[in-house]
Amino acid sequence: MRYLPHTDTEIKEMLAVTGHDQLEDLFTHIPEECRYQGEVDLPEQLSEWALSDHFQSLGTHNSASSTKAVLLGAGSYSHNIPEIVPSLIGRSEFLTAYTPYQPEMAQGTLQGIFEYQTLTARLLGMEVANASMYDGASALAEAILMALRIARKKRTIAISTAIHPRYREVVRSYLQAGSFTIIELPLTKDGRTDLSGLQDIDDLAAVALQSPNFFGVVEDLATAADTIHDIKALFISCFSEPFAYGLFRNPGACGADIVCGEGQSFGMSQSFGGPGLGMFACRTKNQRTIPGRVVGETVDVDGKRGYVLTLSTREQHIRREKATSNICSNQGICALTAAAYMASLGGTGLRRVAKLNYDKADYLKKGMVQAGAKLLFSAPTFNEFALTFPNDFEPARKRLLDKGIIAGMGLGSFYKEYEGAYLFCATETASKAVLDAVIKEVQS
């Protein structure tokens, strides 16, 4: 069988080598009080094909199987993926290649990562990009740790409350074991981060903002950079939708010191929540403190171009106490996917898709406001926006769900003060018919 390759004879031979008579003996070292007593209530076994049919029948209960559109946003976005991307990434040279420890065996993978770093650095307006991280949340946490290493004795971090709530949870998990202080910055009435209190914070190592933030609001990064640098702190800019930088000035051009975020939009399907891609870039002066790995270009003894791991700051490569990161995988296939996606679109294509995203979301936003909804914040937005309604939106939301349209994510579970407000998103995948259906449902 596919999943149980060992015969009874082979199992007995292995047990004889370990000095045991039966499989249960392998667990005798576990204290009796720690073992489960009794029989596990499991259904009767199924054949491989019956099990496959069973899971397919369970899948029909997922609303996504008959969904026309998902207009939620909040860190995961639906985008069209050119067929060239899965076709290229599905090649065995990339899909099965493991971590490139040996450059003589993995030139293709190393070159792919090098190209990804180049494209990422250009997109974000930075000088150095690493070989990617797990996702946007872990990238932000690693960026904050990096800032603390650079700031040395400073132990305080300020982060905007408009940063994705899940990202902030990961940051707190990373820092909880250390003697660090996390200060959350409030929002102004227009939905941007209020930086007026930074002058009163002592021992401040860095300030982290997200743009577009969790509510889709575009932060004034250039002004923020000036304010943050005036108090001698580092500026960390994060994102969950990199397409914004196809339309707006990138964080590097605005003065950010470290830029990080989620790259799922670049060629990766939403896939019920994962996997993601942590994009990470910084200035050259800080490259020695960057987490993860950096692939560099060199030449071999014959003068031919080649690629190697230029920096490897993970605990697998150097002494643990000297490591700057414990990220144990760079999600290499995801980085290669993003590289193939960015290369297939090019700068012009990226701008076109970004503009289409902006226009679709703006069309929905204006239509919803004309239908009676009210904007939660007045600042410019990209892709997504938050609304309140004169009446309960839930009945309309359920009617839309019956039509296969998932529209509006309640903000109350993340922000108690915004109970009754909903976050909407529209990308290039949303048709005008779907957007009009949502607007019509609100009008009724």
User: How would you sum up the global shape?
Assistant: globular
Helix content: 25-40%
Give the CATH class of the largest domain: Alpha Beta
CATH architecture of the largest domain: 3-Layer(aba) Sandwich
H/E element order: HHEHHHEHEHEEHEHEEEEHEEHEEEH
Question: Which characteristics define this entry?
Answer:
Aspartate Aminotransferase, domain 1, 16% strand, single chain, globular, 444 residues, 12 helices, alpha/beta, 3 domains
Q: What is the secondary structure topology, with strand pairs?
A:
Elements: H1 8-18, H2 48-59, E1 69-71, H3 84-89, H4 92-95, H5 107-124, E2 128-129, H6 136-151, E3 156-160, H7 165-175, E4 181-185, E5 204-210, H8 221-230, E6 234-239, H9 251-254, E7 258-262, E8 278-282, E9 293-299, E10 305-312, H10 332-370, E11 374-375, E12 384-388, H11 394-402, E13 405-407, E14 409-410, E15 422-425, H12 432-443
Parallel strand pairs: 1-13, 3-4, 3-5, 5-6, 6-7
Antiparallel strand pairs: 2-8, 7-8, 9-10, 11-12, 12-15, 14-15
Helix pairs in contact: 5-10, 6-7, 10-12, 11-12
